[in-house]
Write a structure and sequence with these properties.
Length: about 55
């Protein structure tokens, strides 16, 4: 597991005001489409979020 995952997950949970479930095997948020969407950062053009992190 990457060291930033628990940090980013806890910050996302705090922002949403609820717990989120994270599957470490797939490295995806489970059962919460809103949290999953917020977990993908927005980049300014021409930069894009690496697609290999979205595949699954």
């Amino acid at each position: 597991m990457r060291v930033d995952v628990p940090i980013q997950s806890s910050l996302l949970s705090l922002k949403l005001g609820r717990s989120i479930r994270f599957d470490p095997a797939t490295e995806k948020i489970v059962g919460d489409p809103e949290a999953a969407k917020l977990a993908v950062p927005k980049y300014r053009a021409p930069w894009k979020f690496p697609k290999q992190y979205l595949a699954g």
